[in-house]
């Protein structure tokens, strides 16, 4: 199995063959989202939970522009090697530039690769982080098995953080209140909208032992805040996924932006973090 076998129109699963304009918009979206206090909090919370001693080798898998890798590189207790891998050469290059700009370029080894099968030796990492990767891959089961292979036997730990995209909702003033557009977003925005609900079972199947998990709800009421950059990117990403024409996607985004300007916006989604250990 490899990423090119993805069946879903999920644009985040197709970054390896997107044109530059769409990738530039995707990179901006990731950076904007990464600056939001919710993402900063989530990252800090799971990084603290790992109780790192300083020498651990860390892999940011599906790194995009390297948000998680850069956050780990900035933590004073992290002194070991950090690797960041993404299937998109464009995003890997954007990550390299961002890391250099923040003065942590020398700390992170950025590489292009497919999470289904990486050309890296077994047991290479103490920590593998998937920060909003798993819902976009062609086959989550294969990717979890590959993460397990890459973890150090015994102590190696996996962090999986992602949205429970089946819960994503934007209320609109359409007669159905946004039900149809919610369904379109849930179906086309990610390949596996329910994967975070299946995660305890998938981790057990992959012989990874669940150590800790946390659920979060992000809700913007009145003004769009967390969801604001995501709404702007709908203009590009929905037509790219074949879900709507450019005109319909623009009208949908404008409707949500108008609601935010009028202080009548409602958008919400659940998110989960899981930390699991490889064991033997
Ligand atoms: C929603 S983005 C998250 C990026 C980054 N982790 C963040 O949170 O800012 C999903 C990322 O997964 C990458 N991706 C999708 N399928 C992949 C695969 N099979 N192997 C490696 N990366 C993949 C995409 O290129 C994209 O950068």
UniProtKB/TrEMBL annotation:
Residue stretches making up the Methyltransferase type domain: 59-154
GO BP annotations, alphabetical order: methylation
GO molecular function, one term: S-adenosylmethionine-dependent methyltransferase activity
Swiss-Prot/TrEMBL keywords: Methyltransferase, Transferase
Organism domain of life: Bacteria
SUPFAM superfamilies per record: S-adenosyl-L-methionine-dependent methyltransferases
Name of the featured protein: Methyltransferase domain-containing protein
């Amino acid at each position: 199995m490899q990423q090119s076998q993805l069946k879903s129109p999920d644009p985040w699963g197709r970054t390896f063959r997107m044109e530059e304009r769409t990738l530039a918009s995707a990179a901006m979206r990731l950076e904007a989202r990464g600056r939001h206090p919710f993402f900063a909090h989530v990252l800090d919370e799971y990084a603290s939970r790992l109780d790192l001693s300083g020498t651990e080798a860390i892999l940011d898998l599906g790194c995009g522009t390297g948000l998680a890798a850069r956050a780990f590189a900035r933590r004073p207790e992290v002194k070991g090697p950090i690797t960041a891998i993404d299937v998109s050469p464009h995003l890997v290059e954007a990550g390299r530039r961002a890391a250099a700009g923040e003065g942590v370029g020398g700390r992170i080894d950025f590489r292009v690769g497919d999470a289904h099968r990486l050309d890296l030796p077994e047991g290479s990492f103490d920590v593998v982080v998937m920060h909003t990767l798993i819902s976009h891959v062609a086959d989550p089961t294969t990717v979890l098995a590959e993460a397990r292979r890459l973890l150090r036997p015994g102590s190696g730990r996996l962090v999986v953080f992602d949205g429970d995209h089946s819960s994503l909702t934007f209320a609109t003033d359409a007669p159905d209140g946004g039900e149809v557009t919610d369904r379109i977003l849930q179906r086309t925005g990610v390949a596996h909208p329910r994967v975070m609900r299946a995660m305890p079972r998938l981790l057990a199947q992959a012989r990874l032992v669940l150590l800790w998990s946390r659920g979060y709800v992000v809700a913007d009421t009145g003004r769009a805040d967390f969801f604001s950059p995501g709404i702007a990117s709908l203009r590009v990403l929905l037509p790219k996924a074949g879900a709507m024409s450019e005109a319909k996607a623009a009208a949908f985004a404008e409707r949500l932006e108008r609601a935010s300007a009028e202080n009548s916006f409602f958008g919400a989604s659940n998110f989960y973090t899981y930390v699991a250990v490889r064991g033997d």
